[in-house]
């Protein structure tokens, strides 16, 4: 501690985390190019998870030791805010790709707009979204698409409900009602697990009965990129909330100092908002 500004001790975790992430990326590259590299990916993934667990352990211990002050709290808040902003830009890129295809590329292939001459490539193609019949006959489109009012609607209700239960848990923590917070947070974790399970069922149905695959034209590609990355974020968010639940049970937080819990709430609410956008633009319209 130097005056009122906390100077963190030298840490090996950033270097080890970068190394583990690099190994995982090399493995993924090997899988994409050569069709093998699963062991390398697994080693890198285990390394990333281990570094995250040990690094977060150190941060928790530093916080519990009273090393952090108001300045550090502001630093954490700014850091989490910029992280969520980067996640917003991440999903904005994929939503942008979806909107570009639907608003510009597809009408051009159908003969509309300033670049409608591209319709000469496939004169018999009819532009319609969802794209069940891609213009190139060598690409098989999906047989059908999901009704938004079945599994997607159920998952929407689950995630919206989870935001409500998490907010109740947060308010209970701020009021010092630890047991109430624990119970509502446990309910949030359960809802997250339900969402993940239902999405797994949906993916099985997509491949087994609907013909929606990554090779099913632009519809299949955008569907799995958007819902897949969102599902990954739900899995990560659920794990984070599980850690918060354990910390609540160990009495780590106080009504005044609980930014770890608050940051996890920000992340979960962000994931929920992204799903609402997915439900509207991927399933409904």
TrEMBL record:
<keyword id="KW-1278">Translocase</keyword>
<dbReference type="InterPro" id="IPR013833">
    <property type="entry name" value="Cyt_c_oxidase_su3_a-hlx"/>
</dbReference>
<feature type="transmembrane region" description="Helical">
    <location>
        <begin position="181"/>
        <end position="201"/>
    </location>
</feature>
<feature type="transmembrane region" description="Helical">
    <location>
        <begin position="266"/>
        <end position="284"/>
    </location>
</feature>
<keyword id="KW-0812">Transmembrane</keyword>
<comment type="similarity">
    <text>Belongs to the cytochrome c oxidase subunit 3 family.</text>
</comment>
<keyword id="KW-0472">Membrane</keyword>
<dbReference type="Pfam" id="PF00510">
    <property type="entry name" value="COX3"/>
</dbReference>
<keyword id="KW-1133">Transmembrane helix</keyword>
<dbReference type="InterPro" id="IPR000298">
    <property type="entry name" value="Cyt_c_oxidase-like_su3"/>
</dbReference>
<protein>
    <recommendedName>
        <fullName>cytochrome-c oxidase</fullName>
        <ecNumber>7.1.1.9</ecNumber>
    </recommendedName>
</protein>
<dbReference type="InterPro" id="IPR024791">
    <property type="entry name" value="Cyt_c/ubiquinol_Oxase_su3"/>
</dbReference>
<feature type="transmembrane region" description="Helical">
    <location>
        <begin position="12"/>
        <end position="33"/>
    </location>
</feature>
<feature type="domain" description="Heme-copper oxidase subunit III family profile">
    <location>
        <begin position="1"/>
        <end position="285"/>
    </location>
</feature>
<feature type="transmembrane region" description="Helical">
    <location>
        <begin position="39"/>
        <end position="57"/>
    </location>
</feature>
<dbReference type="InterPro" id="IPR033945">
    <property type="entry name" value="Cyt_c_oxase_su3_dom"/>
</dbReference>
<feature type="transmembrane region" description="Helical">
    <location>
        <begin position="221"/>
        <end position="246"/>
    </location>
</feature>
<feature type="transmembrane region" description="Helical">
    <location>
        <begin position="78"/>
        <end position="101"/>
    </location>
</feature>
<dbReference type="InterPro" id="IPR035973">
    <property type="entry name" value="Cyt_c_oxidase_su3-like_sf"/>
</dbReference>
